[in-house]
């Protein structure tokens, strides 16, 4: 009678051994497939699967942060563009001033050349030689 009871216990231990081997293979597969960081994130997802409220709050906070960053970037870009436009107008005014000075100096040089020619003609006509 003891023999049948031994035979009944043996398959149970054999099935437990199979379950242990399957668990060991699953754990080994997780270690080989997923690096530590992704395994932690998978474990955290499993642990926080029931807390949809935290996920929704985090999502809303991320959207607000993104919106704030976007608005701040737009404001900074607008300020930079305005500054560049100001510099362009300022440079244009400076170039206009310099070009007007050059034109006036060119006129002065031409007048000096005319005066020089007149003086040379007068000196040649009067007979004064150097």
Question: Care to describe what's here?
Answer:
Keywords: Membrane, Transmembrane, Transmembrane helix. This is LSME1 protein. It comes from Chaetorhynchus papuensis. By secondary structure, the protein is mostly helical. It has a domain at 59-129. The chain has 3 helices and no strands. It has helices at 2-33, 36-47, 52-126. It starts with a helix and ends with a helix.
Structure characteristics:
DUF4577; membrane; mainly alpha; 130 residues
Tell me, what's the shape? rod-shaped
Strand content: under 5%
Largest sheet: none
Mean pLDDT level: 77
Number of E-type strands: 0
Uncertain stretches: 1-10
Number of helices: 3
Specify the structural class.
mainly alpha
Q: Cα distance, first to last residue?
A: 153 Å
Order of helices and strands: HHH
Keywords: Membrane, Transmembrane, Transmembrane helix
Protein name: LSME1 protein
Pfam families: DUF4577
InterPro entries: DUF4577
List the helices and strands and how they pair.
Blueprint: H1 2-33, H2 36-47, H3 52-126
Summarize the structure.
By secondary structure, the protein is mainly alpha-helical.
């Amino acid at each position: 009678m003891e023999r049948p009871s031994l035979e009944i216990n043996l398959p149970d231990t054999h099935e437990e051994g199979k379950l242990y081997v399957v668990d060991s293979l699953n754990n080994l597969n997780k270690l080989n497939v997923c690096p530590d960081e992704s395994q932690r994130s998978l474990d955290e997802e499993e642990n926080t699967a029931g807390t949809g409220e935290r996920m929704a709050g985090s999502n809303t906070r991320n959207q607000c942060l993104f919106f704030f960053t976007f608005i701040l970037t737009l404001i900074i870009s607008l300020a930079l563009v305005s500054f560049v436009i100001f510099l362009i107008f300022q440079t244009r005014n400076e170039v206009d001033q310099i070009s007007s000075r050059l034109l006036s100096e060119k006129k002065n040089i031409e007048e000096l050349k005319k005066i020089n020619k007149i003086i040379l003609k007068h000196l040649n006509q009067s007979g004064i030689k150097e």
